[in-house]
Amino acid sequence: MKSNLEDSLEILISLSRITFLSLAEKIKLYKNLDISSDLALMSLEDLEKFAGRPLRRVKWNGKENLEFAKREIQTLLSKDIGYLVYGEADYPALLKETVNAPFVLFYRGNKDALYSSSLSVVGSRRVTPEGRKATFDFACQASLQGFNVVSGLATGVDSEAHRGAVTALFDRYEKSGNFDAGKTIAVLPCGIDTVFPSANKKLAEQIIKTGGVLVSEYVPGTPAEKFRFVQRNRIIAALSPVTVVTEAPDGSGALITADYALDYNRELVFLSSCFSKSASLVRETERKKNGALSASGAASGVKSRKSLSSIEKYLEMGAPVAENFEDLKKILSQAPEERALRCKKEDEFKNNQQTLF
């Protein structure tokens, strides 16, 4: 006979697997379900009635969903994967503030890293040498001063951000015998049981070894797909009061993360490495290519969110530029009204009342 804890976990994982329900709908279902079989027996029509809206173009097999959930629970247990449930005390406070937060956040490593001061660092996968060094140095200094570094474990800027923090931690360990510096947090675009890209498996191991954590909203076995990178970016932005872009061409995923940061009323700062000669050349090359693609899309009636994103847009709205970590501290020490960014959707200014420094 199953315990209440086991059945509750089956419900949690079963709900986590459902992509067509909102956070509010999952919370409501979780509160109203007594046992996991109740969800398994619900038809699509039952779910529509519960949600109070049509659920078109979705596939649903409750019994199959439960069987998958049971297998995924075995993976959680065998790989020592933890989970944080929205609404419970240990769910990250900043993430909880967002309207589209994950219902369940899975993790491997030290979850305590999710509860202290952090900075999100993002940028291009095809980073220039200048951007690579600037990112590494920035993350290293942030870690040495006690700030956790959040990024997405992708190639390029993400990897350098994690490596900078990990290097600072190993250096501190050599001097003090412990990892008493800021940790690093990697947000995955795939199931928590794997690492993407696979080339960063060793880096992921170092993150955990130095007291950091890997997190994902996806159940074990979920593959990395394009749309999941965008979904992952919202979590990167949500986990920190400040998002720092170290290098990003027009339309990059880093600028989508910047959009999320503004949506969540977070601080947004660009490093001066975004404007190095090499980075400017890459940005101009990408701009010409994207311009041709945008023209083609306009002719066919297709609109792209990416085609609207450029660093200049954020600078016009008031986003500051920092030379390095120390310069960032000076910027963030200013009064909130001096650093307010104009809202993207309305001609208003957003003020971030949180003080990091």
Short description:
This protein has 357 residues and is α/β, with parallel strands linked by helices. Helices cover 46% and strands 13% of the residues. Strands 1-2-6-5-4-3-7-8-9 form a nine-stranded mixed β-sheet, with helices on both faces. The chain has a two-stranded antiparallel sheet with strand order 10-11.
Key phrases:
357 residues, alpha/beta, 9-stranded mixed β-sheet, 14 helices, 11 strands, 13% strand, globular
Percent helix: 40-55%
- Overall 3D shape: globular
DSSP E strands, number = 11
Order of helices and strands: HHHHHEHEEHEHEHEHEHEHHEHEE
Distance between the termini: 53 Å
Strand content: 5-15%
Looking at how many chains there are and whether they match, the oligomeric state comes to single chain
| Low-pLDDT segments | 292-308, 340-357
Q: What's the rounded overall pLDDT mean?
A: 87
User: Any idea what the radius of gyration is?
Assistant: 21 Å
Instruction: Identify the strand order in the major beta sheet.
Output: 1-2-6-5-4-3-7-8-9
Largest sheet: 9 strands, mixed
Count of runs of 4 or more consecutive helical residues: 14
Which structural class matches the secondary elements? Answer: alpha/beta
Tell me what you see in this structure.
By secondary structure, this protein is of the alpha/beta class. It has 14 helices and eleven strands. A hairpin with a 6-residue loop joins strand 10 and strand 11. Helix 1 packs across helix 5.
